[in-house]
Design a protein that fits this description.
single chain, about 190 residues, alpha+beta, Peptide Deformylase, five-stranded antiparallel beta sheet, two-stranded parallel ribbon, 7 strands
Amino acid sequence: MILPIVAYGDPVLRKEAEEINRNYEGLSDFIQNMWETMDNAEGVGLAAPQVGRAIRLFVVDAGAFADEDPKLADFKKVFINPEITEEYDEEWLFNEGCLSIPGVREDVKRHAKLKITYFDEHFKKHENVEYDGMAARIIQHEYDHIEGILFTDRISALRKRMVKKKMEDISKGEVKVGYKMKFPLLRRIK
């Protein structure tokens, strides 16, 4: 089932998400719904808060970057209760976007490598796994979501002022997208 993606301005995007256990009700179906939602929106990652659930879970499919890095061809993973244990190596700029903030893209600086401990969809624990390049970047972006951080928090004050109006419009539903969205200010107006 394709879920609506929560738009900028919804308080769930600013919450620090909570850990879950293997008995989280409907976990398997929820993960499948997240994959379908992300694929429908042509994303490369999706965090649970982006579909309205403040839990520590995100999915990543970096296959879109396989032309640049062939090892990403089959990079499709679920991260439950992740903890980034280390971010290192040089920081590099890349133009990021977000399904919750459609139409806004900005250069964001992130570390080239990280180590992360997490559970997969079978609740198998993976400890201090190292990822680099685009995989690391997508993981850091999605990890920020479960910490209540948006990529726009990582841009300069000047750039924030420049995109402020676009972001306000998004929160009011004044944006065209090719996927289902839930707009926070539209609910308050009705």
